[in-house]
Amino acid sequence: MKIKLPFSLVLVLFSSLTFSQNTFDIVFPQQNRDNICQQCFQIFRQKPKEVQFSIKRDKNSLYFHINDKNWFNTLFKNSGDGIAIDVVSKDRYNCENFNIESSQIKGVLQRPKYANKLRSELKPYGDNDYRVHVGRVPEGLINDDLEYNILFLSNKNLCNYYVIYNLESYPWDLLDMGMYLDSLTYDTKKIKPTSESGFVIKNKTLKFKIPFEKNKSEYSQADIKPIYDSLRLTDFNIKSINIKAYASVEGSLERNIELQQQRANSIVSALQTFQKPTIQTKVSSSENWVEFLNDIKGTSHEGLGDLSKNEVKAKLVGSLSNTLEPILQNHRKAVLELELERKDKYKNMSANELLTKFNSAVQSDELEKALEIQNSIFKKLNSKEISPDFLRKMEIPKQAKFAKIFNKNSAIRFLDNVRQGLIVYNELQELEKLVPKNGEVKYNLTALTIKLWRYNAIKIEESKLKTQINNLKNYGIDASLITRMLVNYNIILAENFMRQRQYDEKDKSVEFINANYKYFPLSDYDYLSLAQFFSYYANTSLAVNLLEEKAKSIEIDEDLLFYYLNLTLINKELTKTSEYRTIMLNAINMNKQRYCKLFNAIEKGGVTFQMLEDDYLRTTYCENCEN
């Protein structure tokens, strides 16, 4: 389920103004503004980053919401301190309106409300939220797409003019630490949660590129066999293929996408001929604007980067297309990511047959065989052929030599159902007594401790847990895994400090996280989760820095790219750069509908349509979203 985090940006615009509407008793200072607004500016400078506010509509009434009553009372202390709302309609940005009037009041200004009424009418509204009525939607705008800007007044002088930006977000979690089975095994965490749950055994993955020949759409078994042979899949089958097919930018968009789909599907069909198990496939296609715009930089054709997509396509015909073919040919390709699964010789046995063989192997101390059969049982659990209760039928003596088997069974039950956490926690504590120097058991127990602490399922001493994490290095656990745990440790500390309003201590934990996430690999889920953590705790710049390099890559995950856009579209200095244009065209080609939605009204799921004040963003929007 998506959540929404309000984000506000102050826009202080004081130019010579001509108003055609009632501005009530508001004063728009032209000179000596710094002195007039000194107290107001000081209060905003001292505002904790964690204080958030927004305007919300309830039927046709408008309310100012805030999460900190003390700061509210400080801001509205004197009788002339107040709020007024500017109700802005999206019609202002109609693509047929080529010249948008530059004015400080963009819509219909509401009568201001001042300190005495604001303080007396502020009421609790839900958990850690307060609201006060500040205006109504004008009759003539009731059915329009609207947004609501805030004028903050000091002694009736306009000092700050705020536009609210609505950043789309997904529920975030700790970075995935996994748990040890034969190797680290991870939850099936996805950026977009689905109804599916459970675990996925970490399989071997391979990633490589296949160039596409111009005008060739079909790839045969003979074309693919050299690639397949190079994989050396004696002990493995291909479980899944994720293909991202890219077309060069010349020619019809529709034809380019159709051709790339044909190419990608023919590759999948050719690979399928080499094995019986069905290969799960995911295919996506797009035009390769990212590499095109990057590759023409520094050439005599760099000026193409200043043109619209349609203008570029119109130019790339005839001789120019032939001239640029050495560049374009590198853009036609497929990026393949293969997930390999070890062949299972017990696959066709029933669950009861596997259970009999497993218990027999354990009784005769055939540990390797027992581990192999155990993995086959886990696959049936993962595919829902058996229930978790089946695992209790596996007869595993509580002896040190069977520690790995016991450890795997406990870990798999937790991965399959987190509600087993406390039971598994107690089992692993008992197992640790049998094998006090076993690193995998200690790692699993520590990972589980961190998760249970996060959800207040157990009480821990923070210093002891930190020592427990650091001591894992003495048992062969890789330093990158330990650092990942310490980042999670500080994520939980930050949450706790935030609840206790210990903002300085919270900032120290955030600083540790920002300084250390670079020392271990991040999955797409980790990137998004960490970026949202930074944003949630009012460190948007850290989130931008985390994602900016990935945003320039053609292989970036769609959700990561759009989250990056949400964070950066409001930066006018950034949006007019050529690098940012490349990023936006990448997003449009990935998901045009989703890109256009960013410019919807906040109430309709957009970031804000007022981003269209930016001439460049408006040109891009009108070119791609209004035709």
From TrEMBL:
Signal sequence coordinates: 1-20
Lineage: Bacteria, Pseudomonadati, Bacteroidota, Flavobacteriia, Flavobacteriales
Organism of provenance: Neotamlana sargassicola
Alphabetically ordered keywords of this record: Signal
Protein name: OmpA-like domain-containing protein
